[in-house]
Structure formats: C-alpha cells, structure tokens
Amino acid sequence: MSKRRRNARRANRRAQSNMGDMSGMSAKQMRNAVNNIETDEINDVIEVIVRTATEEIVLHSPEVTIMNMGQEMWTVVPKKVERRPIDIDTTSPIAPEDVEIKEDDVKLIMTTANVSEKEAIDALRKSGGDLAAAMANLR
Known about the structure:
Ubiquitin Ligase Nedd4, Chain: W; three-stranded antiparallel beta sheet; single chain; alpha+beta; 6 strands; Helicase, Ruva Protein, domain 3; 6 helices; elongated
C-alpha cells in the first residue's frame, strides 16, 4: 500500500471516530461540560401562557425544566395546547388616550398599511402604542 493511500485511510478513521463530537471538545471536556449543567424541575405546573399580538397560546399541564449553563434555558413540554385569538383592545394595560403616539410610527403605518392618519392613530391607541400589533389589527 502506498504511503499516500495509508495516510488517507488513517485520516478517514480519525474522522469517523470523531463523528459524534461536533464541538471539537475531547470526551473528557464534554463530560465535564455535561456535569456542570445545573438542572431544576418545576413541579405541579398547571399552565403556561404565551401571548403574542394576535393570540394567546395556553400550554396545559406542562413539564417544565430549567437548565443553567451560564444562561438559563427553559424547556416546556405540554400535554395539551390551546390557541385563543385575543382582542388587542382589552389586553392593553394603558388607556388608549394615555398612549404616546410617535409621528414616525403614524407615518410608517400610513405608508405600510395604506390607511389614513386617523386610522393609523386609532390603531396605535388600540394597541397601546405597539407598532406590530397596530399593523396586525389593520390587516
């Protein structure tokens, strides 16, 4: 067997033995990293609610795990998922007349949604000043 072919086979074997290790860490470093992960489980969780500008997603009876690797990572695995549309008017914690409306936001909504200035201002007031929610309500 030629020297070139032998070196190619060796390199191929080395590559195959490292296939599971995508991070470039040795097996010992990987074990240490896994052992340093702090995990905590929250028991008896009834539901987790995720609110967007247009809907509420309710995760019923989830298993919640928190992993800390220098930064917290939450894992939520629900038994049942329920999606509910929400009315933006009722979710704004700020009264519509108390919302500070920026002229740039009004202009952006007017040009993007092709609406009048009054419609843009009303949409911003109803959304509590949330530009994305105002745009979603106009579509």
